[in-house]
Amino acid sequence: GSEMCIRDRHYIGLQKEYLKLDVVDKVVRLLTAFTITLVLLGLLTIVLIYLSFAAAFALGNWLGMVWGFCIVAAFYILLLLLFVVNRHQWIEKPFVRFLASLLLK
Predict the structure, then answer these.
(1) What torsion do the CA atoms of 71, 39, 86, 90 make, to the nearest 10 degrees?
(2) Which of 29, 37, 68, 86 has a beta carbon 3.0–4.6 Å from 59's, enabling a disulfide?
(3) How many other C-beta atoms are found inside a 10 Å radius of the C-beta of residue 74?
(4) What tens-digit pLDDT sequence spans the chain (105 residues)?
């Protein structure tokens, strides 16, 4: 009777609290992963800029500055094309796997 109803309500209340905590945990993990990725990408971008200038100036000493910078730019265009062609394999699939593992846990 009434004892069963109280137990059921208590159980449902606990389930709702668990669900809230689970959602908060997943949101925090997602934001943490996003923040770490953003910081790492920012630092990697700065490093690549400095390395690109170093490579362009080194090539510039041999081939002339204009050609040194053009070769570095051509390298980045090639890299961009590789990413566009392989975006499903390199970006979308790992991202979907990460989200699935996080959200379906």
Answers:
(1) 140
(2) 68
(3) 10
(4) 667 788 888 888 889 898 898 889 989 989 999 999 999 999 999 999 999 999 999 999 999 999 999 999 999 999 999 999 999 999 899 988 988 888 787
Q: Which of 32, 35, 53 is nearest to 43 (CA)?
A: 35
- DSSP at 90: I
Calpha distance 42→80 (Å, rounded): 17
Query: What tokens appear for 96 in the block?
Result: 């979907």
Nearest-angstrom CA–CA distance, 68 and 60: 4
Contact 68, 60 (CB under 8 A): yes
pTM metric for this prediction: 0.69
Joined tokens for residue 57: 């100036």
> What count of other Cβ atoms lies within 10 Å of the Cβ of residue 72?
20
Rg (CA), the chain: 25
